[in-house]
Write a structure and sequence with these properties.
Blueprint (H helix, E strand, L loop, with lengths): L3 H6 L5 E5 L2 H9 L3 E5 L6 H14 L5 E5 L11 H5 L4 H13 L18 H11 L6 E4 L6 H9 L3 E6 L2 H9 L4 E5 L5 E2 L5 H11 L4 E4 L5 H9 L4 E4 L7 H7 L2 H8 L6 E4 L7 E4 L2 H6 L12 H16 L22 H20 L2
Parallel strand pairs: 1-2, 1-9, 2-3, 3-4, 4-5, 5-6, 6-8, 8-9
Antiparallel strand pairs: 7-11, 10-11
Helix pairs in contact: 2-3, 2-11, 3-6, 5-14, 8-9, 10-15
Length: about 350
């Protein structure tokens, strides 16, 4: 399976995989796709640099990319303690009461790690580090990066991608200098819009003259073939890598994977409780609590993430599948086993080839 996107990115197969795990990202690249490492978990640019050094040594010389989070509008910038003052006490009380009710114990050694990665200034430091490595692509999860970031990337020969949930967003991205558009449908995990993938992809393909990646609800070769039939040049997959062996190896998310393996495609919810912007999460007791009558309205980005960051750390440590807080798409219903990335890729490719062959014979 080869499309013009493969030549653009220097990859064998038109499959781009987003993941917060460097082990998964490297494995995707080694398998012939493009692994894209999510950078939001890195507060310290030096830590990201070490991980990208590891990526350089473990991708067999094949290309990889990074994903940053640069919101167009933020309530303020500065130290986390200053932002903390903007959070209403009632919100903090609700979070603490909810954690106690769900039996989530406090942390003995950690605070609100993971918050700063959502700040615009920290995202810029991620760009600085990435451009010191041979990355092929910088993707922004929240639309077009600032003009100077796009210009710097192009000066380094690096392509820029942006996610879009509407055709008008895609046109704006291309006008801003973005090279690839990720058409992310309503089914997708994490930040996502309100238009389903089946409708969105052809709308964006018709709206722009750059390569388009289809995202949202893709976890089989039949869905890859469908994306190509809709006019996409390839696919962008995120959720499907969460139940790979390499994800466990790097992040040790046993309770999270247990929860995902037991979920159906109806066990997700689109909510602002994770970051302050609409994002699809696994439906658990934690998301149910935020839907209750006594729950406060989520705060804008990045304040909501600052509010719940410690809670997420506590939930992770509690290791309870019924409480986990995890972005995942509706494709979770197909995630029924923990497998190596290479096996997942091989299955995707064989199913896509089989599907295209069947359609050719109709």
């Amino acid at each position: 399976m080869h499309t013009p996107l493969c030549d653009t990115l220097g990859i064998e197969h038109p499959i781009v995989g987003f993941t917060p795990s460097e082990h998964v990202a490297a494995a995707i690249s080694r398998a012939g796709g493009l692994g894209v490492l999510g950078c939001v978990r890195f507060n310290d640019a030096a830590d990201l640099a070490k991980v990208l050094d590891w990526m350089d040594d473990n991708t067999d010389g094949k290309p990889y990319g990074v994903d940053i989070v640069m919101p167009a509008k933020v309530p303020t910038e500065g130290a986390a303690i200053d932002l903390d003052k903007l959070i209403p006490p009632g919100h903090k009380d609700f979070v603490e009461r909810t954690l106690q009710r769900l039996g989530v114990p406090p942390l003995a050694d950690e605070g609100r790690a993971g918050v700063l990665g959502w700040l615009h200034s920290v995202a810029r430091s991620h760009v600085d580090v990435a451009l010191e490595h041979p990355v092929k692509l910088i993707a922004n999860a929240l639309g077009s990066p600032p003009a100077d970031v796009i210009a710097r990337a192009h000066d380094h020969g690096v392509l820029v991608a942006a996610l879009a949930g509407k055709a008008e967003h895609a046109r704006s991205h291309v006008a801003n200098g973005v090279d690839l558009v990720v058409a992310q449908g309503y089914e997708a995990g994490g930040h996502t819009g309100e238009i389903a993938t089946m409708v969105l992809v052809p709308e964006i393909v018709d709206a722009v003259d750059v390569p388009v990646l289809a995202a949202g609800g893709i976890g089989s070769g039949r869905q890859v073939a469908a994306a190509l039939a809709l006019g996409a040049d390839g696919v962008w997959m995120g959720s499907y890598w969460l139940t790979t062996e390499e994800y466990t190896q790097s992040l040790g998310e046993s309770a999270m994977q247990e929860a995902l393996l037991g979920a159906s495609s109806s066990d997700t919810v689109r909510t602002r409780i994770y970051t302050g912007k609409p994002a699809r999460l696994l439906k658990t007791k934690w998301t149910d609590a935020w839907a209750s009558d006594d729950a406060p309205e989520p705060l804008p980005m990045p304040l909501q993430n600052l509010l719940v960051a410690e809670a997420h750390n506590r939930i992770h440590r509690a290791n309870d599948p019924a409480v986990v807080s995890m972005p995942v798409g509706q494709i979770v219903g197909r995630m029924s086993a923990v497998r190596p990335v290479a096996d997942v890729m091989a299955t995707l490719l064989s199913e896509t080839e089989e599907t295209l062959g069947r359609l050719k014979n109709l």
